[in-house]
Amino acid sequence: METTKKTLKISFSTQKGGVGKSTMTTLLASVLHYRLGFNVLVMDCDFPQHSLTNMRERDKRTIMQNDYHKKAAMKQFQAINKKAYPIIKCKAETALEKASEYRSQSAVVPDVIFFDLPGTANTKGVLTTLKKMDFIFSPITADRLVVESTLGFTKAFLGLPQTEEGNPEQEMWLFWNQVDGREKTGLYDAYQNVIKELNLPIMETRIMDSKRFRKETDDTGSYVFRSSLLPAEPQLMKATKMDLFVEEFLKITHL
């Protein structure tokens, strides 16, 4: 008997801008799709800026204009002979429907669908879409406002009444992003304790800050980091601890 494959719905979600949601979505999607053999679909619901759709356009231009990226793309295509993962532009309230439509019509069933949602919970459709996710990963940085707003939102979100449409098996994980190696660990320990007291799960891997997170591919002439057409290079993954993050992510999601 053939069982239908379960497609995981995952969102990097937080109420604060600038903590790396779209960057994390791209890095993870590209590593899973191009390097680890999974099939990925990305729903770009971040209306009106649609930063991932715009990023894909910039990535295409970079590959055409930059020799280093062009060679990397040709080498990748020869090795895996696989198309780029689709990025579908939508609004939060239609994201689930559009993803389901794509899944039913596509010859390749995605293993993972990433939903890149707007940063404000009061945007129409954000909460109902989040309630349907299998996993939500929330990046936090060692900044009091970021921590307070994320913890406040997480507690409120987890306290919302279960509805018919919700996903009772949903898991929500916090993780430290943009960690500055020079920062005092005491600060992290204090926050860790608060998170523990609130009984919220937090990932062990802390992602190190790197200027590369803020660079678009067209500024990165001789290396690849954040790109929707190529996976980040292994040595850069290692330097930022993204490699360990991916391992832990795979364990949590059982992919």
TrEMBL record:
Ranges for domain CobQ/CobB/MinD/ParA nucleotide binding: 10-213
Cited SUPFAM superfamilies: P-loop containing nucleoside triphosphate hydrolases
Domain of life: Bacteria
Pfam families tied to this protein: CbiA
PANTHER family cross-referenced by the UniProt entry: P-LOOP CONTAINING NUCLEOSIDE TRIPHOSPHATE HYDROLASE, PARA FAMILY PROTEIN CT_582
Name of the molecule in the record: Cellulose biosynthesis protein BcsQ
Organism of this sequence: Moheibacter sediminis
